[in-house]
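Board notes (copied after class):
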Amino acid sequence: MEDLKSAVSDHMDQMADLVEKLTAELRSGIRPAYDNFMGFFHAIDWKEPWLLCLLLFHAVLLLVAILSRKNINFQMCLFLLALAGVYLAETLNSFLRDNWKSFASQNYFDPHGLFLSVLWSGPLLVIAIIILVNTLFSLCHLIVKWKRAELRHRARLSQKKEE
């Protein structure tokens, strides 16, 4: 019993330390994260044609995802393609890192893939989440519709039994 009490006490101490560290970080504010983001944002030449095409690609893909929200089969294909794009991001980063001189003014493609993760995988994941949420709403609507039909069917059966 003492071992259990000491284990629980140790666990509570660890949790208190984690909460203390978290609150200290929150008190320091989001200024360091904001500064890092602004440094990343200003390091990119947003007027490069390939980068504008990439942003346009994501905008068109988002528009297609929104406009095709009623077509679940097409949305599932779009969802899988978006996730395949995220899956292939590492390979794409390697290829682009080797060939950046042919289309960009500077090498954005670091070995860790931060740039490609933010500007390629991030938007694809957001679009995939939008598709997933739409699919869940559609499934909920379908379940409600199915349940109503089932209740109508049961009501008809009980009316027939009463007659």
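Comment from the instructor: The chain is about 80% helix and 0% strand. The two ends are 68 Å apart (CA to CA).
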